[in-house]
């Protein structure tokens, strides 16, 4: 290809559109390669990248000529349709100028596959670009979300919780080694309150028995500040909250039923002075409900605040004990306090609960909520705050995107699973943002009140509860955010195996799930009714359900079943494991496994709608074309420099330079710019030094291009070397199945051909037999000339019978797969009387007593 075809005769700043250029190429007969090279030139910026200053208004004489030709092409197609299409294109085109570019940029920010569905289905490259852009933006969103979530937690939370729980739960309060975990009656609580509770809350001496200073008071483990004072709260039920059976009415006078908000005792009792003896509502205490082991408890009750010193707190506890603050009607005792560790900037909101059921005894439970309420202290915290601001911008961006998609697709939008996931993530994220703002304001307010009155009880229970819900909501959002990654990588057939398998077997799984649930819940109900009174794991229906799930996972207590009943326990366990685990559960796995095999076979046989590798290969080829074009351009200039000095005076004047570059298709402005760059003295000639400088720079640019191309080729070779060679196991399995089917088909064809050959061979043998029989009959007729008619008939009959017997024996020998009787009848039926056999005709003549 000549240099002229490589270069566009136009300058780099032409006003022609791509459609005009294509039409111009068709009229002037320019090859496609030249146009592609020209496109690469224009995208690269033409000669501007070499440092040439070309005026934007400049146009070469070839440009003027070709533009003139383009302007006259409208006369070649004087149709109304072309005018209508142009008008529609002009109306659809975005407004020109700065406003148009701004609107186009805004529109491209929310250009998703769903918003560009029609265009992306027709344009494969647009679909790939849109998918990649969405994936990159979403990965940035996911990174920001990860920074936020891990910025809220740290390993110190676990150790902080562990230290505080061991302090209050594992220290014994009597010689029997009882701890808070093993409290069993009303008296045990008072021993715990006077012992481990007081010792854990108030650290007033060092390990050498020296008293701590005034500033060091109120620190647990000398590190954790006790905020305000602890508080004890109890809930009671009134006498008569249950009914005594009439037969025991004269023996039992009092009846205290299980806790219920309607049966709560709100009357004043005991000393009748102070909050410990007078009921306060949940609104007065600004409290919240709590779920214990037995039931849910309201936020009101009888409350007693402790003091900031151990001595005063002990006096308060002793006073409550002496005046029987805990009674038969007591159903729950809460011990609440909050500590703060400034070293790690963490709060620990502690609640110790003892429940007294109507059966008697006691059940202890606890809650240690280690949370980070003061968010912005260190440099890392402020970095997290910056990420939170970016996260809010991302949420606004995605909300606008979903609104646009809903506006476009209407109800159809909600029929797609990934759209529902998008809505779920956005809703959870929006709620978390709102709560984060509320939490920051609420914590500042509470700490401000606490500093004003340090002997008040700071109720962080409500805030800590919702902080834990906030953490759980963020965890759910992160989970679905990671699941959503499948939405953006499902363009490849390998990535769709999971979703295709689940969607294809969903119907079978749903139908079988009904049978599984019937059997599963039947065993759960059976376990509750049989073992519920003795075994805790079957004490109620939900415990039984989770126990059966644990059995499926291999976590079970067989000894408790066997100890309850030597026969029913093992029988129940065996039946459940056999029917549910060995049969039903494996049926689930069989359905999924069978569907997965079908999906893999189908995916292996089908071709991708598009391959991402093809897109990158195309980009690689485009980059190589640009580098090759630049190299060709430099080579052209080098050749022009070598041959421009026509008079061999070692000086290249402008006319010689212009003539040489004109031959190679360069425009006047390009020639002028290139010449002016190296004509340092401005004498319109290039002397030997200036020519040498040009040659050195051109050679340097060429070497740089070669280096770039070598690096690209090296990266490509490394990628290909790292790629797995050969066929995969799935592809080999598919090929093996296809070969097996082909062998089976070929074997069937071969067997049929063998059967045809056997029949042809039998027919050939029959022909030979007929010839032999005919010859024998003719010979016998010739030999019987001297005999009378009776002897001739007997001899002929004997001969014919012998031949028929031999014929039948041969048929039986050659037959395959049939019985001898059926072969004989089939042989007889295959020889009708008029078949033309010589023996048949002779035998028929003998029966008719006609001479041969």
From TrEMBL:
Sections of the chain in a coiled coil: 688-725
Bias (Low complexity): 815-835
Transmembrane segments annotated in the record for this chain: 135-160, 382-400, 420-441, 470-489, 509-535, 571-592
Intrachain disulfide bonds: 242-255
Pfam families tied to this protein: PKD_channel, Polycystin_dom
Annotated membrane topology: Multi-pass membrane protein
Localisation: Cell membrane; Cell projection, Cilium; Cytoplasmic vesicle
InterPro entries in the record: EF-hand-dom_pair, EF_hand_dom, PKD1_2_channel, PKD_2, Polycystin, Polycystin_dom
PROSITE patterns assigned to the protein according to its UniProt record, in alphabetical order: EF_HAND_2
UniProt-listed SMART domains: EFh
Name of the protein described by the UniProt record: Polycystin-2 isoform X1
Organism encoding this protein: Lingula anatina (Brachiopod)
Organism lineage: Eukaryota, Metazoa, Spiralia, Lophotrochozoa, Brachiopoda
Gene it is expressed from: LOC106180089
């Amino acid at each position: 290809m000549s240099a002229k075809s490589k270069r566009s005769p136009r300058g780099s700043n032409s006003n022609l559109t791509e459609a005009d250029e294509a039409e111009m190429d068709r009229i002037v007969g320019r090859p496609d390669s030249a146009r592609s090279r020209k496109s690469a030139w224009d995208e690269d910026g033409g000669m501007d990248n070499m440092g040439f200053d070309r005026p934007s208004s400049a146009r070469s004489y070839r440009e003027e000529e070709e533009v003139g030709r383009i302007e006259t092409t409208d006369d070649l197609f004087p149709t109304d349709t072309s005018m209508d299409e142009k008008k529609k294109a002009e109306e659809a085109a975005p407004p020109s100028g700065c406003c148009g570019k701004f609107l186009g940029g805004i529109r491209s920010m929310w250009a998703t596959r769903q918003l560009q569905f029609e265009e992306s289905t027709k344009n494969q490259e647009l679909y790939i670009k849109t998918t990649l852009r969405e994936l990159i933006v979403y990965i940035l969103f996911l990174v920001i979300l990860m920074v936020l979530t891990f910025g809220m937690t740290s390993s110190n939370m676990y150790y902080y919780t562990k230290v505080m729980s061991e302090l209050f739960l594992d220290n014994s309060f009597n010689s029997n080694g009882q701890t808070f975990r093993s409290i069993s009656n009303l008296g045990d609580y008072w021993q715990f309150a006077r012992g481990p509770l007081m010792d854990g809350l108030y650290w007033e001496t060092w390990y050498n028995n020296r008293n701590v200073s005034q500033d060091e008071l109120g620190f647990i483990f000398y590190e954790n500040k006790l905020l305000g004072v602890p508080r004890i709260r109890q809930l009671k039920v009134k006498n008569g909250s249950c009914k005594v059976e009439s037969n025991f009415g004269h023996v039992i006078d009092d009846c205290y039923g299980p806790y219920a908000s309607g049966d709560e005792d709100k009357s004043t009792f005991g000393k009748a002075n102070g909050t410990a003896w007078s009921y306060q509502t949940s609104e007065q205490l600004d409290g919240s409900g709590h779920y214990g082991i037995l039931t849910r408890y309201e936020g009101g009750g009888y409350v007693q605040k402790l003091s900031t010193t151990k001595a005063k707190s002990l006096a308060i506890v002793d006073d409550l004990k002496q005046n029987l603050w805990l009674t038969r009607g007591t159903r729950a005792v809460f011990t609440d306090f909050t500590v703060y560790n400034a070293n790690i900037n963490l709060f620990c909101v502690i609640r110790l609960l003892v429940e007294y059921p109507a059966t008697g005894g006691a059940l202890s439970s606890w809650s240690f909520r280690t949370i980070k309420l003061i968010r912005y202290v260190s440099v890392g915290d402020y970095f997290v705050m910056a990420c939170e601001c970016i996260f809010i911008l991302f949420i606004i961006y995605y909300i606008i995107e979903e609104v646009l998609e809903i506006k476009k697709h209407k109800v159809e939008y909600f029929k797609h699973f990934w759209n529902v996931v998008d809505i779920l993530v956005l809703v959870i994220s929006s709620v978390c943002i709102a709560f984060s703002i509320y939490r920051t304001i609420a914590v500042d307010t509470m700490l401000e009140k606490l500093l004003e009155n340090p002997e008040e009880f700071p109720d962080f229970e409500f805030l800590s509860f919702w902080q834990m819900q906030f953490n759980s909501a963020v965890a759910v959002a992160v989970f679905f955010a990671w699941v959503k990654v499948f939405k953006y990588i499902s363009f490849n057939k390998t990535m769709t195996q999971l979703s295709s398998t689940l969607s294809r077997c969903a119907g079978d799984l749903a139908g079988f799930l009904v049978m599984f649930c019937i059997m599963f819940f039947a065993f759960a109900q059976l376990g509750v009714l049989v073992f519920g009174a003795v075994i805790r794991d079957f004490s109620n229906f939900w415990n039984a359900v989770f126990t059966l799930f644990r059995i499926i996972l291999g976590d079970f207590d067989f000894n408790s079943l066997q100890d309850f009943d030597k026969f029913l326990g093992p029988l129940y366990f065996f039946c459940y494991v056999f029917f549910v685990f060995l049969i039903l559960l494996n049926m689930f796995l069989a359905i999924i496994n069978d569907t997965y095999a079908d999906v893999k076979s189908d995916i292996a046989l089908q071709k991708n709608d598009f391959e991402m590798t093809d897109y990158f290969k195309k980009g690689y080829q485009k980059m190589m074309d640009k580098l090759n074009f630049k190299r060709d351009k430099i080579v052209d200039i080098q050749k022009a420099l070598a041959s421009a000095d026509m008079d061999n005076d070692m000086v290249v004047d402008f006319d010689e330079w212009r003539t040489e570059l004109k031959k190679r298709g360069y425009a006047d402005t390009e020639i002028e710019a290139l010449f002016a760059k190296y004509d340092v003295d401005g004498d319109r000639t290039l002397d030997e030094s200036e020519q040498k400088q040009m040659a050195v720079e051109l050679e340097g640019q060429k070497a740089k291009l070669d280096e770039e191309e070598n690096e690209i080729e090296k990266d490509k070779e490394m990628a290909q070397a790292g790629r797995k060679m050969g066929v995969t196991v799935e592809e080999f399995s598919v090929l093996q199945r296809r070969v097996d089917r082909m062998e089976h088909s070929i074997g069937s064809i071969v067997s049929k051909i063998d059967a045809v050959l056997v029949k042809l061979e039998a027919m050939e043998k029959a022909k030979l037999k007929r010839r032999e029989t005919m010859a024998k009959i003719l010979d016998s007729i010739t030999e019987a000339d001297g005999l009378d008619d009776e002897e001739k008939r007997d001899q002929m009959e004997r001969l014919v019978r012998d031949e028929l017997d031999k014929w039948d024996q041969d048929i039986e020998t050659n037959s395959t797969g049939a019985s001898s009787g059926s072969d004989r009848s089939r042989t007889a039926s295959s020889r009708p009387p008029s078949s033309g056999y010589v023996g048949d005709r002779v035998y028929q003549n003998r029966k008719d007593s006609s001479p041969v």
